[in-house]
Each structure stands twice: as C-alpha cells, then as structure tokens.
Amino acid sequence: MVVAVLALGGPAAEGREAWAFTVAPAAGQALVIGSAAAGCVRGAEALALDGENYQVLRPSRHRNWGHPSTIRFVRDLSAAAGGVGIAGVLVADMGQPRGGPMPSGHASHQNGLDVDIWFRLAPQHLGRAELEDPTPVEMVKGGDVDPATWTPAQARLVELAARAPEVERIFVNPAIKRAMCRAAPAAGDRDWLRKLRPWWGHDEHFHVRLVCPPDSPDCEVQKPIPEGDGCGDELESWLVKPTSPAPPSKPHVQARPLPAACRVVLKEK
C-alpha cells in the first residue's frame, strides 16, 4: 500500500493536513499515545465498512480506524444490539490511520479510542450515495427527548454501550442523559449511568470513549468520573437552557502540542 505523508520540516508538518493525508497505519505493536485531544495511535486497524449488523458512514473520509480495542468494541456492540432486536447500527467517525488531529469535525478522536454511533438505525442496508451523504435524525426537541424519534431501541443501544467494561465515558445531549436517568429502575444497578456525560450537541449521535489499554503506558488517562449516577444537580445544571441546538462553536485550534512520540508515528513509512 502506498503511504502518502507530507514532508516534515516546518510547523505545518504536524498540522491536521499531514495526518489526514496519511492513508496507512504506522506498523508495529498497537499503542495509544497521548490523549483524545492531543494524541495519535500506532498499529491502528480499520473497521470493515460493512459488518455484522452495522455500516460505516461517509467511508470516503477514511476515518474508520482505531486501536484494536475500539474495533472489537464496535463489532461487539453491533452484534449485541442485533441480539436484542436492534437492527442496523450506523457507525460514524472513529479516527484516522495514525490518529492525530483531523482537518474538520472534531477536536478529539485523536488517539484511536473514540467512536461516534448514530442514534438513527438502518434496518435496511443503505446504498453508497446515502452512506456518503446520510441524513441524521435528531433525538431532542428543546429541553427534552423527542418522542417522535427517541424510542426504547435508542435507549437500549446506549445502555449496551455504557455497560461495556472497556467504555470509559459516553457523551450525550443533557436531555438524553435525563431520559436515561428517568427510564432506569430506581433500585438496582445504576452505576453505568455515571458513564453518560452531558455535553452540548450529541442529539444525533453518542460519542463513546474507551479506557486506556493496559499495554499503552503513554496513553493519557482522563480524570475520574464523579461518584454516583450523575442524575442529580450536575445534570440539572445543564438543563437550565434548551439543550439543542448546540451553541455556535469556533473553529478548532490545536491548543495542546502532540506528544513527541507522535512525530515519530507520523513520519514512519
């Protein structure tokens, strides 16, 4: 396979374009380096574009790459969803072949441990044209979930993801977090709810982030999630304003430098 890599030598060499133009992973042991917002990945694998109970959206973006643990998670989640009657999981952006910052769309998704899963389900396979230009389905209207689109299938899919032990946190719209809190039994196991972290947007998809693999010592561990199910005051503080649409965002600027090891990952042939 031909690997296209921009020549190194200046500040632009480690910019977003260089990572986006690299079309093959760095060979060697799979390693996560740095954080989701300032990192990269060695030995990444590509998720097959069409697998058991899932399809990858916008395949021309070439963002279906991740650490092997992320690939396994997507496959396992899709299979588990199919096992409980949830058909047609749609997988959106994961990461680039070597991770790193993307030219558009995300500040995170850099170290091979992130994946976006759409709330829209596609029991019937989507054709090439719709895969490249898919239509999302919003799950939130104002400050609450939209009963016309939010169904038990979406809630069950999120719960399946949150219960996976390799999942560190999942970003969802605050209104979706509230709906999940309300639907979960008051007694019994609610600990998985704490993984659902409210964040603006995320009303068309949920954003899964996995834990650092034990064999990746240079993976930056995130701050621990607070104790409890997160369904109290913390959540209510998000709900004082409508949660959709998200506030306007500024273009992403890479605020933190990438680890030195990422420069090596980028320049390897």
Question: Can you walk through the features of this model?
Answer:
With 269 residues, this protein is an alpha+beta fold. It is built from 7 helices and 13 strands. The chain has helices spanning 16-20, 68-83, 128-132, 152-163, 174-183, 233-238, 260-267, and strands at residues 31-35, 38-42, 45-46, 50-51, 54-56, 65-66, 89-91, 114-118, 140-141, 144-145, 167-172, 196-198, 205-210. The chain has a 4-stranded mixed beta sheet. A 3-stranded mixed beta sheet has the order 4-5-7, covered by helices on one side. It has a two-stranded antiparallel sheet with strand order 1-2. Strand 11 (167-172), helix 5 (174-183) and strand 12 (196-198) form a beta-alpha-beta unit. The protein is globular, with a radius of gyration of 18 Å.
What's the overall average pLDDT, rounded? 90
Q: What's the end-to-end separation, in Å?
A: 11 Å
Find the count of extended strands (DSSP E, 2+ residues): 13
Describe the main β-sheet briefly.
4 strands, mixed
* DSSP helical segment count: 7
Largest beta sheet: strand ordering: 8-13-11-12
Compute the CA-based radius of gyration.
Answer: 18 Å
> Beta fraction of the residues?
15-25%
Poorly predicted segments: 1-13
What fraction, in percent, of the residue positions are helical?
Answer: 10-25%
Shape: globular
Order of helices and strands, N to C?
A: HEEEEEEHEEHEEHEHEEHH
Q: Which structural class fits the helix and strand makeup?
A: alpha+beta
